[in-house]
Amino acid sequence: MSTPMTAAEMRKILASRKIERVVVLGANGTMGFGSAALFTTAVPEVTFLARSKEKAEEGLAAAIKQVRSPTVASRAKTGDYENDLASAVAGADLIFEALTEDMAIKKDIFDKVEAARRDDSIVATVTSGLSINALCEGRSDSFRKNFLGLHFFNPPNVIVGTELIAGSDTDPAIVDFIDAFSQLRLGREMVRTFDTPGFAGNRVGFKLMNECAQLAGEIGPLLVDKLVGPYTGRAMTPLATVDLVGWDIHRAIVDNVYENTNDEARETNKLPDYMAKLMDKGVLGNKTGAGFFKRGEDKSRLVLDPATGDYTPEEEIKLPDLGYIDEVSAFHRDGRYQDGMQAFLNAEGEYAKIARGVIAGYIAYAFERVGEVAETIDGIDRIMGLGFNAAPPSVLVDAFGAQGVVDMIGEAGLAIPSALAEAAKTGKPERFFTHRRINIGRFFVAG
Amino acid sequence: MAAGSEVYVLGGYQTDFARNWTKENKHFSALMRESVRGALEVCEIAPEEIESAHVGNFAAELYCMQGHLGAFFTEADPAFSGLPTSRHEAACASGSIALLVAAAEIEAGRYDLQAVVGIEQMKTVSSDVGGSYLGTAAWYEHEAEGISAPFPKLFGKLGDEYDKRYGLKDEHLAEISKINYSNAKLNPNAQTRTWYMNKEHALCQTDDNPAIGGRIRIADCSQVTDGAVTLFLASREYAEKWAKGVGKKLSEIPRIKGWGHNTARLKFADKVAESANDQYVLPHVRSTIASAMKRAGIDGVDGIDGIETHDCFTTSEYMAIDHFGITAPGESWKAVEEGWLEIDGKYPINPSGGLIGAGHPVGATGCRQVLDSYLQVTNQAGAYQVEGAKTFQTLNIGGSGTTSVSFVIGV
Lengths: 447, 411
Prior knowledge:
The structure holds two protein chains of two kinds.
Chain A: H1 7-14, E1 21-25, H2 30-39, E2 45-50, H3 53-67, E3 76-80, H4 81-91, E4 94-97, H5 103-116, E5 122-125, H6 132-135, H7 141-145, E6 147-152, E7 161-166, H8 172-184, E8 189-192, H9 201-219, H10 221-227, H11 238-245, H12 247-260, H13 273-280, E9 293-295, E10 301-304, E11 311-313, H14 323-333, H15 337-346, H16 350-368, H17 377-387, H18 393-400, H19 402-411, H20 418-426
Parallel strand pairs in A: 1-2, 1-4, 2-3, 4-5, 5-6, 7-8
Antiparallel strand pairs in A: 6-7, 9-10, 10-11
Chain B: E1 7-14, H1 28-43, E2 52-56, H2 60-63, H3 73-76, E3 85-88, H4 94-107, E4 113-120, H5 127-134, H6 140-144, H7 150-166, H8 170-184, H9 199-203, E5 211-213, E6 216-217, E7 227-235, H10 236-245, E8 255-263, H11 268-274, H12 283-295, E9 306-308, H13 314-323, H14 332-338, H15 354-357, H16 365-377, E10 391-394, E11 396-398, E12 403-410
Parallel strand pairs in B: 2-3, 2-4, 9-10
Antiparallel strand pairs in B: 1-7, 4-7, 5-6, 8-12, 10-12, 11-12
């Protein structure tokens, strides 16, 4: 839908059917229990299901801890797939699948869901990038009609940006209903994206992070996270984000994109060899206590040497002169974001150029994906801003100016997306990012 | 207001109240600059057009070690060099006081276009220190010195006074909290948008919802918030010209149709003693609301489509319900039970989420209430739009019901 629904339209759609019972499959996983907790804000009965009742109970405990409210329990039930799935699914209005990102595992649970569900129940998957059409291939008409992707970002109770992905056979009325339900009842910002690998958010967001991981193999993680730091328009630095997400999740996403797409920047989605090797040794980021960074016994930060797998104290690593970053940050501190980005644009030296190359790549990649992953740049903008907490590509274009961005992309040796070339030539549109109620300043963090 | 001295609201801009400007490592000047420039852009007004500017702020000297706030306009845009500026303070009603003065200058014919900024950066200090700073909105020496969380305790006493006179149930306060949090989920710039809340949580008595001042629990409280809101007020002459420029009719531009402004004694105990024989617990607040309605030519609460009120605590919203005349004095619980306060109810209160849900950057709140009223009556409130709203009324309170200001905003 190109025009957003009004509040009155959404309330009308919402009144057309009821969501009173939700079943969450894989409720012991991070996305499972986080999403289940979110559903308890709006739904009287949420059933946490996992391989064992014990695992489901762990999920419920984690949900309570995550949202810090014991009242989650009063709306929750728990059970396992073998004993409880059939009856819970039969009574459910919405079945929400949050199993591990594996097509075969998901398809297996959908066999059980299909056998038990009512014809009118909605089935949603939280997959972060597997094909919606492939996931429901071969299912009944009623299953495919009522099946869609509802991609919350982690943690689901905190990040409001959410992708809504219809399959070829999904009933448009179901898409509108879940859109209205998610907005009005769950307080989500919904972005409709297309059924392509990684959809819009992970396709564009992880490309930048993987490129940074590749770069870390050459110049080290510490320097990369300084160069593509908060001043470039992000709350969290790229490699610290990969550590937080988990290297295994990062790998699943970029491998899926690398194997199933063939775009102009394909090689930037290839997982660096050193990451694969270290993963074999058990390095998975924060969840294993070590990734690009880890904490020493005295809580000081240690930095990975990608070549050796060893860690060096942060303060022992010599960094080049990055004075330009202080200059940009000083502008940001006073709210002079455009001046800050102009200083970045004009900064001299090879490292500023590397940083500009990554940001130029991000912007160009996003603009080239319009029509492929979302209808307009606006969809990519909103999911980057509200899902990734990173400056939307259009916000950066407005801050650099269209000509500035075209120069940056040229400097990086990349092709100029036609919308940007046109804007540089004609001066139109004057602004790419036109959301009056989204603060653009929140994306530019000072130092 | 005389026909010749109409004051129009051209629109404005709110910073996202969920933002923590200290964590973003940003100075007060960034908060002000973002809101001013955002408003100029949204309203399509060139900075050169602004003739005078006002800042409403409570305590930047304490929170930010920064005074002389009007002068920060000159940092927002070079065109503001030479602009007449001033700063206004009346505790949590500071934003409304700035609006009143700006409106008066338009009515007096001094200026045709005014910028008004309500602003507060509060997350610069710990909650204990911040709580003590807020105590200066009361009579500090008598009511706040050496007392932890003085304001929750004062508004707990407001609840106690209701209980004494009319009876009060915690479940009604919990429902008020729940509605504000639910509405905030629909507001893209609300602070608590992603916080977990339901009625059971608001009622629960565990470490997740501790009591901090008598009957006041965490879920009953508004928030500590960084935020700024900029609004533009204009004379009829300027509004006419501006409307033409943006392709609108003058009749579509909201006006300040009425206002009320009142001050009661500082100490809460003195206020309550004064009202002992009154049917209203805070008669000066009632008088503020009623005079705004009277100036707007409105005969009671059925003449307005919604309210943005000062719910610094659930007890203050409970008080507002009967003081607005939604129920008879002492019967606010009826409006709660009937579901009248919800966005699609008979008397919607705080569709934005209010101070509890949207947040409470003290000096910005009065301006935020007027901006939300503006958005409602121009059908721009998005997911928290009250269908068909034409007239909204605000109530902004400083101290424990000490300064009160109310605006009627309508088309």
